[in-house]
Write a structure and sequence with these properties.
Elements (H helix, E strand, L loop, with lengths): L3 H23 L6 H17 L1 H19 L1 H27 L7 H24 L6 H21 L4 H22 L2 H93 L9 H30 L7 E4 L1 H18 L3 E6 L6 E4 H18 L5 E8 L5 E7 L9 H4 L4 E4 L7 E4 L5 H12 L1
Parallel strand pairs: 2-4
Antiparallel strand pairs: 1-3, 4-5, 6-7
Helix pairs in contact: 2-4, 3-4, 4-5, 5-7, 6-7, 6-8, 7-8, 8-9, 10-11, 11-13
Amino acid sequence: MPTEKPQAKRRRLAAQRVREARDRLTSTTGTRVAFDYELLRQFADNRLSASLVILLLVGTVGFLSSLWTGAVTAGVWTAAVLIIHTVIVTKCRQFLKEVPTNLNLRAWRLRFIMLDLFYGLAWMYNLIHPVGMDEGSSTFMLFVMLLVVAVSSMLASSLPIAVFAATIPVTFAVALNFALQGDLHNYILGIMALTAQGYFTLLAHRLYTAGLATLVARAEKDALIGELEQAKAISDEARRRAEGSNIAKSQFLAQMSHELRTPLNAILGFSEVMKGEIFGTHAVPAYKDYSNDIHVSGQHLLGLINEILDLSRIEAGRYELHEEPVSMTTVVEDCHHLLKLRAQNRGITVHNVFETDLPRLWADERALRQICLNLLSNAIKFTPSGGEIWLKVGWTAAGGQYMSCKDTGPEFPRRRFRSCCRRSARARTPSSRPSKAPVSDCRSPRAWSTCTAAHSR
């Protein structure tokens, strides 16, 4: 139903808000717990993937630093930075090997931040150590600072606090060194260092936001896939239950049909023998009429059983049409002959208007006969005494054939035509007598003919 979709959407949004609130309460960063792990995992992956690049960077800067600080000092600094880098790589590998459910994310987060802080302090020591500041060393300091800040911002973008821990000491030391020189050139270099820090901080924040948005989109996609799979499982289960119920109903109807047909055939047979007085006349004449009533009632009950079985087959999609060449005129004439006596008893005149030279149709004769019988019986039932009924068979404008049953009975309101064709509905006529026309499911031939008869008035 259309009203069910907004309700389902509201329930899904409410569940999502509750889940997000719970995740924020249990998270260390204000995001979902699963996002905390994914962000730390990205940090570890970035560090491991860039480990060789950082080794090359440390070696190159160490070699160039020896021009100002000497080989021993530069070698000690290089060894210290490599040790810190080795610890970072080892911890990253250890983090990735552990099971996510057993991780203490808060402790690992603090551990990575502290390691990046030591890493930044080591670079700061190298940049403020040169003795005898000149134009060459100033340019070198600014270049190394930009390089370190850029690399650290890219690698630690999934952990914003680690970005500050690795870059702020370096930038602060370089800017302070330039400011202490007291000339315009170094002031400009200090401002450039601070501006570069702000730019790379903003860039790292943008990368962090983009990565978090990607994680949110992936989580929503996974949640949607899970909901779809759950809905499919529920639908499959409901379908299996419906099929099981339908099979049980079909088996029940088949069993009941067999159980009812067996005694009903005996009733029809014996009542026909008694009605025909085959073994002699009845001592009481009324017994013959009673036998005829029993036979007619049994035939009516048999027809009801057949209609119930037909409806069950139609609902199950197993109603088979036995199509063959059929003359519609012959079928309508036979139906008129069967119900002619009933119409005469009620004083109703039936007129046949059949066009000649009609070819045979490719149809199910039994279904066509049932439609015609229902149309004509309803017309007889709802037409008052002295009325008239016209049975017509002829050509349509499109070259097909039609069958029409029109009577002088009360007109059925068109506004109630759809309602009477619903399952278990009953149609009341505005006639003086309180007759009721039962209407079954419109998928059955009986219901179709009933609705057509009502519509033809």
